[in-house]
Amino acid sequence: MINHKKWISSLPKINKEISKTINQLDHENSINSIPKKDSYNSVKKYTLLTVLFTCGLIFVSIVKNETRNLQKDINNLETSINLIKFNLDQAFLDHEIITSPENISLLAKKHLNIDLAPYKRSQIKQLNAENEKFTKINKTKKEKTMIQKFKKLYSRPKSIPNEIKTHVAKRIEQKKEEIFNIYHEPKSIITLEKAGKWTVVQLVKAFLGMPIIPGR
Amino acid sequence: MKNKKKSFYFDDYAESELIDNNKSNIVKVSLNKVTFLSFIFFSLILIFGIKIIYLSLSSEKSFFSNNTKKEFVKKRRDIVDRNGSVISTNVILYDVGVRPKLLKEKEKKNLLIKLGLLFPELDLNKIKNKLNKGDFFSIGKRLTPKEKDQFWLMGNKAFVFDEKPSRIYPQQSLFSHILGQTDDVNKGISGVEKFFDEDLNNKERINLPLSLTLDSNLQHLIRKELINAETDFHNIGSGAILMDVENGKILSLVSLPDYDLNQRVSISDNIYINKITLGVYEFGSVYKTFTIAAGLENKVINSSTIFKNLENSLTCDKYTITEHDKLPKNLSAEQILIRSSNIGAVRVAQRVGVEKYKDFLNTLGLFDTINFDLEEIGTPLPFVWGKCKLATSSYGRGITTTPLQLARAYAILGNGGYKIKPSILETKIKPLEKKEQIISHKTSDAINLMLRKVVSLDEGTANFANIEGYDVGGKTGTSLKYNSKEKLNTFVSLFPASRPKYVLLVMLDEPKPAPNFLYEFPPSKKFPNGYKHKGEMRNTSGWNAVVVAGKIIEKIGPILAINNLEASTKF
Fold first, then answer.
1. Could you count the other beta carbons within 10 Å of the beta carbon of residue B147?
2. Does this model's pTM top 0.90?
């Protein structure tokens, strides 16, 4: 049998006073512990969310619109690039056809008046020789005509223009003076510079074994 | 009281709890709504974000109508020559059809009037009949974009446009025998288009053209001279091949008659075959070069070996072999080639012997079917070797091959004896030193010297090809066509003979004597300035094929940029 008294006495003694105060709960405390309704914060939160949502919607529609515009631009550019590429291909093809040897020879035949022919070396040589011949002939012809002109001119002294006459007369006078000077003062012609040059020439001639006085 | 208070307290607590529960429920509901809206909002952001990323990354622009685009996508690689000139390319052409069922009677009449004004070349009666029949019919095929636009601008709903990528050839008939053609679905059916079909359709290399070794300018000049030859010598056809002797690159391959590839007509006449690669012919005296070379290679003769008492004719079974002209009785090996002595060639071949001679020709690849970059390849006719066969084949009778193989054999003889593979595809080719040598340098040098004398000496048979500065060497060949009195005249030349760089083969099919042709003899010892000679009744290679070859070399020489020996010395 269980001794219930023993068990009861083993229980800790209850301080009725204390327990009373303990059991008397402060309801204020409890009420304070209930989360207060923060009306300001919730308004702020919902406003923020709404603003964000609206901004997001606007942003998305702007981005979408811009993307569409960009896509249109890209598409247009690509179309024009393709068109340019296509035209370039066509132009290349046209170029190939226009510059084909067949076409060039046809155009040459049509537009060039001269026949282009390859010249061999012997032909060019021959041409050169003939050219030289022609220039020589031309030169002699020119000289001959000049001589004939002069002959004609001097055969009739009266027909010589006065200008030429005075020019020739001046030249004759000059030469006369030079000869006169040489005759009367031969030493004046021989300058130190001239003598030096003459000596050097003679020395070189002697060194090379050439006759010092020509003709001997 | 206590209970009451307790109860009150409890009730109060319960009430506040209830109030709070209601509030929290309201907050919960609001929060759920906000979460839901936020979810939708973020979903939208996510969707648009994904779209933005997709738009920025997407290469295919499938968002807008494709009608605004005119994108040109290559379906097949271009083919270009060695200078990069396009010789085959793809363009978009259009087939235009009409659906008469979409037209009312009045519209049909209007359409006929408009077609008559814009396209006077169209047969309006035919179109009228077809319109009345009511079945779909084609009104124009392979139209250019410009022509298609003319139809399109008419604004008729009955027109149906079918876009077709088509192959076109800007050089028209210049490369007809080489390039071949494609069918309606852009598949190669002949020539290069067929042989390299897979390569030409390689999508990875679609923007890289297929480069050939051919040169449009050289091709044009050679073709032009061959066409002129038809006027001068009245031959029914001709062919020429120009090959680099060191690497086998073919710079020009002409076969006449040719045809315009853009016309797309079906040709069945044999005269239009590629004479150079597919034609198998008996070439005559050009084989004497091989006979002499075989003698030199087998060391049974040298250039100065004298053959005494050569007969004017000899008989072997039913064959009588004669000389083409009266020749001295004693000839050296060199003179046999220079003067083209048939009996002399027989004597040399007899010294060589059947087996060695056969082996030598085999080494030069004259009997096999050549491995080449085209499908149109001929096979030399097989025959049984014997005593008489040796005699006849020594001077090129009763032995056949293709011009391509003949040119290759001459190239091998000219390049120092190295084996080469003719090709029209521009690829990296091994340098000569790394190639297999099949004939000695000594034989090659001796043959080059002899071939030069065939052209340069007065007694040679190819004086007309003695073009100043190009040091041309070569051998003539005149043969009678099988079962015909007509001739096939050939001249194979190597130039510059001192160190050959190119081999040129010119072949005239059935040429006639040219009594009105003005022959211009090149300068020689006898005639330092050359001389002119009008008309000639002889119809041998020396009087036509050589003349044509000479003209060709004169024209192509500057393009080939050979060091012209004459031009390099100062005037």
1. 16
2. no
